[in-house]
Amino acid sequence: MATNHLADNICCFVIILLISQVLCEEETTQDMIKKICLHTYVEEEYVFCCRTFNEHLISTRTGIRGLTQITIDRSLHNATSTRNLVLGLLKNATGRGSLKDALVQCNSSYMTLIKAFKLASSYFTRAEYEKVIEAESPGPLAQDKCAWRLDGAMKSGSMDQLVESNREMRILVSMSLVTANYLLYP
């Protein structure tokens, strides 16, 4: 009888040890956010990244899947609102010139981004994470084409919002690709 009691105690101890080790090793939501946001490299972008996640957390125990959902949703939202801003600016742009050309390029870029993140969202809901990355992969080039054309255009005060929104899009695209990669390669 004493041997069974000792074996039961050892078994309970091992189970408790294993469970506590798993709980201690589990990465917290804030740890994951920091790890993702470190890929932004610049402090201002790191702050934007952390703020974006924290403003849209559903729970304090959101996992990588939830963080990926946030990046896809925010990227789609930003791409849609930025395209609407571009369309508004295009209405007021007259004639040919670097500004109008830049806006036409940005419109095209943001149509690409919207399509990419709608597709990524569709794949995400079906847990096809490799296809999420594939769908998001045109994002950096599309955003960069808009940024490049904006840099070459004469800017007025009305362009400041577009430049800022485009900068945020660059960060969101990066966040989306990083989180989707962590889904596949934790």
Strand content: under 5%
Order of helices and strands, N to C? HHHHHHHH
What general outline do the C-alpha atoms trace? elongated
Give the integer mean of the pLDDT values: 87
Domain Pectinesterase inhibitor: 28-179
Protein name: Pectinesterase inhibitor domain-containing protein
Family: Belongs to the PMEI family.
Pfam families: PMEI
Give descriptors for this structure.
mainly alpha; Butyryl-CoA Dehydrogenase, subunit A, domain 3; elongated
Question: Could you describe the 3D structure shown?
Answer:
Residues 1-24 form the signal peptide. Belongs to the PMEI family. The chain is mostly helical and 186 residues long. It has a single domain (28-184), classed as Butyryl-CoA Dehydrogenase, subunit A, domain 3, CATH 1.20.140.40. The protein is 81% helix and 0% strand. The protein has helices at residues 2-25, 29-37, 43-56, 64-92, 98-125, 129-136, 139-152, 160-184. The chain starts with a helix and ends with a helix. The model is unreliable at 11-25 (pLDDT under 50).
How is the topology of this model organized?
Elements: H1 2-25, H2 29-37, H3 43-56, H4 64-92, H5 98-125, H6 129-136, H7 139-152, H8 160-184
How would you summarize this macromolecular structure in one to three sentences?
Keywords: Disulfide bond, Signal. The chain is mostly helical and 186 residues long.
